[in-house]
Amino acid sequence: MKKKKYSIFFIFQIVLSLTAVLAVLLPVFFSRVSWPDLARNYLEYNGLKESGARNLVSSIYLGYRAFDTLGETIVLLVAVSGTISIISHSGLSLAKGFGEEKSKKQTYNSISGFNRTELLDVVTGKLGPIVLIFGLYLMLFGHLSPGGGFQGGVVVASGIVFMALGSKTDSSTWLQEAGVLAKIEATGFLFLILASLSGIPGGFGFFGNPLSGTEASPVIYIIILNTIIGLKVGAGIGFMCIAMLGKVE
Amino acid sequence: MIERILLIILFLIGFYGIIAKKNIIKKIFALSILNSSVVILFILEGSKIGTNAPIMEEGVKNVVDPIPQALMLTAIVIGVCITALALAIAFRLYRYTHTFDIDEIHRKLHDEPF
Amino acid sequence: MTILILILLIVLSLYTLSSRDLLHGIIALSAFSLLSAILFYILYAPDVAITEAAVGAGVSTVVFVWAIRSTERKDKG
ipTM, 2 decimals? Predict the structure, then answer.
């Protein structure tokens, strides 16, 4: 009797949750209202003139909706610091330079503890700088072609992971150390705040383009912001990935 | 129309995975699938009113709506941060209880005194 | 073309959630990200395609493999 009651309640729960989900989703998925094109028309005619960037997506997340970018950098900061602090208190010895090391007798062969083969060293060690250069290209040319701060930042982060996987002990670069990446992320955040406040003395408001009235092209501000965001995102995600490549005891 | 039905099926698969799977890593898989399905919905809806990518070269007209794309960039990066944080918590739970099964974790955390 | 890719995405997501070995699920999730990056390119969104490819097939897979390698790999019992 108890089992029968449990199963009826269980079925009732499933039906109730499914009804709630479908009641929220069905008006969204089956609406016949057409997508409004007022914003697209405005941006198609005025986007290039007002911000100077040919890539309209860059002009949106750095010019018209820059608050979302600021919020995203704050979320990235919180998530990276939360992940590092949760891992480093669990008794796991991280990569060299992070957290506390449980036993000082262990010497690290390299930054990761599993079996290393020559294939891994050659492929990832030689391919790492190429990926970093590609990420830097995406960051700097984000206003002319597909690319930008976020895109270049995540490609730089995967390039940092490549170089960390492929390095032997005597040829590790300065990009892998904990202090360097944390400092890059912190200075990137500081420069972002400074760049966002730089439009206020000219009367353009918070995140306003300080070059929009002068003869200099307003695209220089977009390039500077792209570089800052790319460095910050790349250093943050690379920091999180390198800290996870430590040795388990 | 058919694409929206397929996307709602993808959303429901992710939703089912979060609720009904017993392994924590499977739940985190389902969280990532849920995130991806909403991103695909926004980009799909924004691409119906144009025929060109939003890069204003010479003589490019009738571009796709660029605003959903700018918002989804932020959403993808935040999604990977959430996945990494959830995996760190799952890892910590494993170090304490030596299992990934959610029923056993619940039993162990409520039986043993701290 | 988009309908075909969406059907493939549904099949991959079903395989991810029902595989016995967690490493197979991670590889299927990486293929899911690659297919959705191709879908974004078809839908005239190159910026989102670059970000999804670099994030899904790069950083997310690394984080999942890290969580698996120092713990267990089997599922369902």
Answer: 0.91
